[in-house]
Amino acid sequence: MSRTFASQAEHRAFVAQQARMPQGFRAGSTRFAFTPAEVDKPANMNVTVLAADQPCADFAAVFTRNAVAGAPVLLGRQRLNEPQLGAIVINNKISNVGVDTGMADAEAVCAAVGAGLGLPGSAVMSASTGVIGWRLPKAAIVAAVPKAIESLTSASLFPAAEAIMTTDLYPKARTARVGEGCITGIAKGAGMIEPNMATMLGFVLTDLAVPREALRAMLPRVVDQSFNAISIDSDTSTSDMVVVLSSGKVPCPDLGQFEAALMHVCQNLAHDVVRNGEGVHHVMRVTVKGVANTAWAKAIGKSVVNSPLVKAAICGNDPNVGRLLCAIGKVAGGAGFDLKTSDLNVFMGGHPLFSRGAFTLSRELETTLQAYLQHAQMYESRASDDGIFRPPLAFPPHERCVDIEVNWGQAGAQEVSIFGADLSHEYVSENADYRS
Amino acid sequence: MSRTFASQAEHRAFVAQQARMPQGFRAGSTRFAFTPAEVDKPANMNVTVLAADQPCADFAAVFTRNAVAGAPVLLGRQRLNEPQLGAIVINNKISNVGVDTGMADAEAVCAAVGAGLGLPGSAVMSASTGVIGWRLPKAAIVAAVPKAIESLTSASLFPAAEAIMTTDLYPKARTARVGEGCITGIAKGAGMIEPNMATMLGFVLTDLAVPREALRAMLPRVVDQSFNAISIDSDTSTSDMVVVLSSGKVPCPDLGQFEAALMHVCQNLAHDVVRNGEGVHHVMRVTVKGVANTAWAKAIGKSVVNSPLVKAAICGNDPNVGRLLCAIGKVAGGAGFDLKTSDLNVFMGGHPLFSRGAFTLSRELETTLQAYLQHAQMYESRASDDGIFRPPLAFPPHERCVDIEVNWGQAGAQEVSIFGADLSHEYVSENADYRS
User: Fold this and answer.
1) pLDDT score recorded for residue A433
2) CB-CB contact of A58 with A212 (8 Å)
3) pLDDT band at B220; cut points 50, 70, 90
4) What is the dihedral of CA A158, A162, A163, A166, to 10 degrees?
5) A61, A242 Cβ separation under 8 angstroms
6) In the predicted model, what is the mean pLDDT of residues A212-234?
7) Which positions of A are annotated as active-site residues?
């Protein structure tokens, strides 16, 4: 987490290099204008197709646990029973959630993509992201599909990573090599992010041959330690999904090595999603050690990264350690964890600030921690003339984070890391000052 | 909830009228300057004493469930075993949490108050609110106690309601009559509010004679439906407490009538706390009906009022119903509640917007809901010249709220109401732009 970027061009070059297309796949996108049925305001939509040269028997997916799941999620769960998957079609702008014609609309889009590729509609998975409650412009999407298919190319996943964005500031792609093959993922997501099975949308393609059963066994393990270990605003989306598709073009030397590489790709993508979260100035990494019950450790980490007061303090470069302890104690006491405050140790940036039941504060520590927070900041808030706060950057200037360690000193505990973000005027502007 | 206030003077007159002192009690406060050990910046502190004319055998209290509880909470739990309580001493500015000398400091303050009133220190309860992690200025408080005791008066609880404030914009007091007696409560709290046993600080005095056992049985029931049914920012304080003290000067005609009046006082105080929450523009009331499992109903209500995206949308007068459904589905799905989306109905301001699995949106409904949200707004955001957002009001202009009803249609369900607030630039300014 120590890479830096001096310019948007430098960051885009990095993402382009990460967006390597695995063998056996192509991607294409198209953009069109339409007017939603629900508001009298024209909008633009991108339709993106990820296509396999031959339908793949080896694929896996995990989906949101939100009870109000979108039609693409409901349809995607059905697709897991299909013998083969040949393509994924993705639209932004409208998420196709809670609409009576949602399933039929999603099936129609899949059928159009299938028709263009010589596949049955049931071999196509769909994914949608954007406004909840609006109807998909089905006819316009179906009309656009042939153009997306015409544009299919095996050159790079970079255009697809850009086309699936909504409020994201920049595209996200990560790759890893295993033997002669590679695993490449792209993701979108910037708000409504506390994934509970997957981030908003993540698509991973690989040319390495991994059987369906093996893929499906490892994906939940990987997601648990990547997309399920982040939170921007604690709001689990209705549309979260992560899909992995293997073309099988390259023999896989070792399944353990593959899983480690998949973990690497997914963790980096998940961290990219946090760093590009709505209004994020600081990324927080909360590492919980010495808590033997792993579920408790996760809950403690989530409580810290989701505390509005901790988030706001970090945004202001304020080492408000009291709020940190409040967030830890809130979940430990509220959920009745059997943990004694007298065994608790807390560190920020490696500096001890709470040791066995009492704070270890001093004016010097305060100054040190302020400088530490400043160093981890990506930009400062400044309102535009119209009173709106907009992020001044379209790339991450660095990959530093605010490291918080919570250690309860119990033996035999697994270490848990949760990634989160601060709470800023830019987040409020993004979600309150604009009408969606 | 339909009272309006045209000016600060009108609101203060209302609070003063509510701050009626029950027979057998006096209150006094004093203010002094000091420099905290932890930062090189002078500060002011108020010390407030609530004193009974004779020590009371009948008292009850509930405390925070935060595992990192402050010294006054730990001491207060011990005081419940004392035969009598004669006074409560309250300071603002520093909460006396997580400090190695915390218990000794709190005991010293209690002893000083006891000495001034002719009581043992063990008959005095202490309460502290403010910065977590700082040391109480014990010597300065002990020196100030005699002045607070000199100022004791039975005239009104209004000065005490003002003296216990921290970031509160205005004092909060509520009263109710039962027979010839009365119950009067004061409360403070504006941030770090998702009480879990009690709000930050609430003190209720009554002249009605209610035995200790009866008081202690009813207080948790009352708190459950008042202070425990609100959330401003989901952060349960380390210092929450509610204390009830009876002087027994007036016979109580009926315990049921007393409990109903106590409920009235506590609910109104809890709503006052939400309305005066940090940066609050809109108060939200989420009523969950038709969910037979009451714990699920509460969790659904809390999920809505704590969703940053719902909160930000309401701040912007944006009827973003998709976020509302996301927040409902997040907890229902994440916690595995056995509830079908196809049975779900959601209303805002009485207008149906989601009915049996699908949205019922239209451009007309959008316009209606925007106007409804605007009507429930207390003020508009405007940054000062220094870029800081400060609430432009020191009183609540009205007591309207945004009414959200979630109805799952199950028979035999208890109705649950949860109060919450929106998320604004003023909240971020309060908690990020100032250094604490």
Assistant:
1) 79
2) yes
3) very high
4) 160
5) yes
6) 91
7) 199
Closest listed residue to residue A159, CA positions, set A253, A46, A301: A46
Distance (Å, rounded) from C-alpha A39 to C-alpha A353? Answer: 51
Query: What is the residue whose two structure tokens read 């299909």?
Result: A82
> DSSP for B2-22?
--B-SSHHHHHHHHHHHTPPP
What phi and psi values does residue A180 have, to the nearest 5 degrees? -90, 0
Distance of alpha carbon A42 from alpha carbon B310, whole angstroms: 24
Between helices A102-117 and A71-79, what is the axis angle to 10°?
Answer: 50
The pLDDT confidence band at residue A297, using thresholds 50, 70 and 90, is very high
How far is it, in rounded angstroms, from Cα A48 to Cα A161? Answer: 9
In this complex, do B423 and A432 lie within 8 Å of one another by their Cβ atoms?
yes
- Token pair of A346 as six digits: 């807390």
| A359–B98 C-beta distance less than 8 A | yes
**Closest residue in A to B320 (Cα–Cα):** A436
Select from B356, B398, B351, B397 the least CA-distant residue to B371: B351
The model's pTM is 0.90
Distance (Å) of CA A86 to CA A80, A118, A119, A122, A227: 12, 10, 7, 9, 25
- Tell me the H-state helices in A65-130: 71-79, 102-117
Task: Decide if A165 touches B, using CB distance below 8 A.
Answer: no
Band of pLDDT at residue B311, cut at 50, 70 and 90: very high
Asked if residue B106 lies in contact with residue B75, where contact means CB atoms within 8 angstroms, the answer is: yes
Angstrom distance (rounded) from CA A84 to CA A81: 9
The arithmetic mean of pLDDT across residues B61-75, rounded, is 91
Mean pLDDT within B126-150: 95
Closest Cα of chain A to B98: distance in Å?
A: 5
Q: Choose among B39, B333, B382: nearest Cβ to A363.
A: B39
- Report, as an integer, the average pLDDT of A225-240: 83
Proportion of chain B above pLDDT 70, given as a percent: 98
- For A376-393, write each residue's pLDDT tens digit: 999 999 888 888 899 998
* Interatomic CA distance for residues A273 and A195, integer angstroms: 11
Place of tokens 């063990």: B122
Three-class secondary structure of residue A426 per DSSP: helix
CB pairs under 8 A between A and B: 255
Q: What is the pLDDT of residue B435?
A: 55
End-to-end CA distance of chain B: 34
Q: Does B368 touch chain A (CB under 8 A)?
A: no
Beta bridge partners of A209: A251
Tokens at B181, concatenated? 């007696």
Rounded distance between C-alpha atoms, residue A25 and residue A88, angstroms: 11
Please report the pLDDT score of residue A238 as a whole number: 81
Measured N-to-C along each axis, helices B138-150 and B102-117 cross at an angle, to the nearest 10 degrees, of: 20
pLDDT band (50, 70, 90) for residue A41: confident
Kindly state the tokens that stand for B138: 């014990």
CB A204 within 8 Å of CB A20: no
Q: What is the mean pLDDT of residues A55-62?
A: 95
Q: How far apart are CA A414 and CA B59, in angstroms?
A: 45
Report how far apart the first and last C-alpha atoms of chain A are (Å, whole number).
34
The confidence band for A436, taking pLDDT boundaries of 50, 70 and 90, is very low
Residue B29 in tokens: 């406060």
Residues from chain B that touch A348, judged by Cβ atoms under 8 A, are none
Kindly determine whether residue B358 and residue A100, on different chains, have CB atoms separated by under 8 Å. yes
Q: Residue A136 phi/psi, 5° resolution? A: -65, 140
Q: Which residues contact A372 (CB under 8 A, 6 or more apart)?
A: A319, A348, A349, A351, A402
Burial B156-171 (b: 16+ CB within 10 A, else e): bbbbbbbbbbbbbbbb
Diameter of chain A by CA atoms?
69
pLDDT value for B436: 46
Q: Largest Cα–Cα distance in chain B?
A: 70
